């Protein structure tokens, strides 16, 4: 229902009390204000409703927080990997130019020991500690492979603790290894064929089957971007970077250069 009215000249204000209906009126020139009270029901929650809502929020948080935390950690590791890769690339290019090398094969070859290569790179790569081969002290932990890797039926880690290595100024740790070639970076990688559990595969005469793969890497550098801090695993915080005659990386693109997603499988040493 609608009410129409007009205030006379000596009216000061109008009070209206209305539940639902709309009141329409016209004020004269001497009116000063209008006060309007609506009897509107205020909403409220019961204790049970509040507890149910909090419970739902808690369940959702418990389901999503681990994923959010993991994604954040991966993002940090990827950024560290990109920074480390940039440092290594620049150091190798500077070293190549400084020493007049035609290719990285002039540095990574059988004429240089791993310790000598570390010393040469230290001129262009900020190192706070250098550890000679078989001395240890820089790479103090075992490193997990990217996926479960077996040897003789049990999972294993990679032991880099006695390799030529160095601690860099940003806290990352590098180790390197040159391969057996004369500078052209052409050599053959020979290894025994194994089954899914790391057991040697034999031929009909009971001899190990040997795989021979042609290689074009001059050497490789492994870097753990956050040092002793976990997870200490390849393709997580640790990266194996090949050194080729004119570039460093892999035959394909390094994963962290194109994606923030890390792919690795957590496992423990000694699993069957």
If you had to describe this structure to a student in words, what would you say it looks like?
With 272 residues, the protein is of the alpha+beta class. The chain is built from three helices and 16 strands. The chain starts with a strand and ends in a 14-residue tail after the last helix.
- Mean pLDDT over the residues: 85
Shape: globular
Radius of gyration: 35 Å
Order of helices and strands: EEEEHHEEEEEEEEEEEEH
How many domains, in number, for the residues?
A: 2
Low-confidence stretches: 16-22
Number of beta-strand segments:
16
Task: Give the strand line-up of the largest sheet.
Answer: 5-10-11-14-15-16
* Estimated share of beta-strand residues: 25-35%
Short account of what is shown:
By secondary structure, the protein is of the alpha+beta class. Helices cover 24% and strands 26% of the residues.
